Amino acid sequence: MTAEQQTTGTDEFIKGLWSQNPVFVQVLGMCPVLAVTNTAMNALAMGLATAFVLLMSNIVVSSIRGFVPKQVRIVTFILVIASFVTIVDYVIQAVSLDLHKALGAFISLIVVNCLILGRAEAFASKNGLGRSILDGLGMGIGFTFALLCLGGAREILGSGSLFDLPLFGDSFQEWVIMVLPAGGFFTLAGWLLLFNWRATRKTKSAGEVQA
Amino acid sequence: MNQEPLWSIFINACLINNFVLAYFLGICPFLGVSAKLATATRMGLAVMFVMLVSSTCAYGIQALLLWIDAPYLKLISFIAVIASTVQLVEMFIKKMSPTLFRALGIFLPLITTNCAILGLALFQTNKGYGFAQSIIYALGAGAGFTLALILMAGLREKLELARTPDVVKGTAITLIIAGLLSVCFMGFAGLGSSQ
Amino acid sequence: MTGAPPQETPDPGLVFKMYRAVVGVGLVCGLAIVTVFEITRPIIARNKIEARQRAILYVLPGATDSAAFSRQAAGNFVDLPVDAPGELVFAGYDAAGGLVGLAIEAQGMGYQDIVRVLYGYSFDQQTVLAIRVLESRETPGLGDRVEKDAAFLRNFGELDVQLAAAGDALAHPIEFVKSGTKTSAWQIDGITGATITSRAVTKMLSRSTAHWMPLVYSRRAEFAKPKEGAK
Predict the structure, then answer these.
(1) Residue pLDDT, tens place only, C34-51
(2) Assuming Cys at both sites, which of B14, B84, C34, C184 could form a disulfide with B140, CB separation 3.0 to 4.6 Å?
(3) Is there a domain that residue C122 lies in?
């Protein structure tokens, strides 16, 4: 029994990282994914903020799940999420005003990130504390990882740097469009293509094995 | 207080800083409901309608919060009030005009979690818009959203007939089209400053 | 799950439970938010003032200290605490306490969105000393060159904003010219490839200097360094 639970616990953690990655596979929470990933730093900060809110809301929702009648569960979940987002908003302002300026209103918009409410509703309200923590961690890290992939690619192509460290010489002509809104769409499309391609190749080879 | 002229606010929200293509707000419905032209149009109108309502509410809340000096309750009260207003509006429409309800009905609950609505409320208070400015801002943002959605739906209906490789089918090709649309909308930038 | 089983008639216990849950969660959340807000508020306020101070000292080279002033209804200026609300101008002082100049904020519509800049004004030379962009969403690599382009920023080394003899207007309002065609000290060379943004910056400076210079120039004495501890 314990062994079985442990394996499923690890699975809960791993699935968010890869097989059910919130961005690349589930295509959830797109707004911040596209909007604030013009540099790797912004992407990392946004990813961590979202992961924190996700983890905390999973913890709280999971612990109060017996206490909340199901008619009012969405309202209470949103209350919980909105409080954590407000807290994160103030903490980021206290840590770095520049960062807060770069992320702008998108910190507040974590509230309406479908990923968080989705996990609260679909997982944390039905599962125990431990597994909810693992799920929140996995999804949070998976989300941050995806944001970093996008932010990194866009910063390297669009500004020729990574985390503000210049990568190329002066002769590098920045591909400005990548840090503009349009670049967000293109980069995400590129990553999705990569995942699709891998998936199709896998099913193909699996089909060959079966045949 | 912000002195921006109304026409400039409208152009800005609708074209230059289009909510979908420049701010990336409301991407979920943009990707989800843009497959058919007819649904896209109705969704756009529903969003515009909810934007107007929630923008008015947000203006009221902001005034109230300033009055009781509790800025930290902004986010929590915005989301709560917007969600409940949409529900009220939904019930009201259902009672008053079943035709309108059939047209907009199924979209209304979806819209509550549309980040464009909350984004609008937050941007409008950040910019310090007055009442008339807020209304125009909501109208512009809604019109911009509808425009982007309709353009996208039109393109996707054509795309059905085109031959696309298997790998790009689905979200990927939609995103690429959205990117191209976004590039097109960059051409509108600068409209506001050529006075 | 301990939730009530689905029932046809709502029982009063369930209503009570619903109220208990929503009000309870709301109360706890409210408490948490207020606590964090109270803890972070002084830090945030300090950060904001520090960021502004850095900008002020940047646009007023040689200044080491600053004070905030606000224009009163009678036209005179009085010093205020640095965190006072409303439209402020900032006076910068060198180490000896002498007035270096004023830092004034200007804003206007850029290419994408509102651009806010802070500029330094020198009473001695009647020039703009430097500018700093406080807020902009201009296109990276194009419009945002108004923040970084060395040739463009050199425009503001000694930009002439001398008053006309009557003292109620500028002798030469700041003008925008195409890149490389600057001939007079009151002109600003635009940036090729960022014409609209550089013209927008010029325009907001032109408007702001035309508004402020006649108001402040004759009142230089009012910007003397306030006594320590006054703020």
Answers:
(1) 899 889 889 988 888 888
(2) B14
(3) yes
